[in-house]
Design a protein that fits this description.
The chain has 193 residues and is an all-beta fold. The protein contains no helices and 23 strands.
């Protein structure tokens, strides 16, 4: 945001990767965090306001987001791929991951139909009263388990199939919106809504 001696965000040619080493954290208690790169690897990231993660900024369909730590954006979390060309959103879990927003939206999507979250780890998504928009989860490699929670009028939108080895649990008061045909599969657990 241009404060604290850092330059404001400018042009990004999409040629580079953003990589945080496993176990490292990035925290901005009162600020916005906006990270992007062709491939993005994140440890724990906490923003006191909004958190935005964008991969595949050159829109060549090759970028990946790898999560090794929890993500929190008190003002909302947006994870997306560049919206041009054939950009896909490919998210790989490398550990049990929580994605949290405090009464604000969590949006994990792109305009391209090719978007998914994979990895044999637990995934916990909680937006408080905020809306949640999700891609396919576990299409290539089933997640270990999935918990999705929000309250109040916050909706949950599912834009792809969901597959987990163990339990899948949706806790919500608002509507669940299907963005198309959606299959929810728990291989060795229960799926509850």
């Amino acid at each position: 945001d241009g404060t604290g001696g850092l330059p404001a965000f400018g042009a990004n040619d999409g040629a580079g990767d953003l990589v945080m080493s496993v176990g490292t954290t990035l925290t901005a208690p009162n600020g916005t965090i906006d990270v992007s790169g062709e491939n993005v690897t994140l440890g724990g990231v906490t923003s006191g306001t909004a958190l935005t993660v964008t991969n595949n900024v050159d829109a060549d369909a090759d970028g990946t987001i790898t999560l090794t730590g929890d993500l929190r954006g008190d003002g909302g979390v947006t994870i997306t791929a560049a919206e041009a060309g054939t950009a896909k959103l490919d998210i790989d879990l490398q550990g049990d991951i929580s994605i949290t927003a405090i009464d604000n939206a969590i949006s994990i999507t792109t305009t391209n139909a090719d978007h998914d979250i994979d990895g044999a780890f637990a995934l916990n998504i909680n937006a408080g009263t905020g809306a949640i928009t999700l891609p396919a989860i576990g299409d290539n490699t089933a997640v270990e388990s999935l918990t999705v929670a929000n309250s109040g009028a916050g909706t949950i939108t599912l834009n792809g199939n969901i597959s987990a080895q163990q339990d899948i649990a949706f806790t919500h008061e608002g509507d669940v919106i299907l963005g198309g045909d959606v299959t929810i599969t728990s291989n060795d657990g229960a799926a509850t809504m």
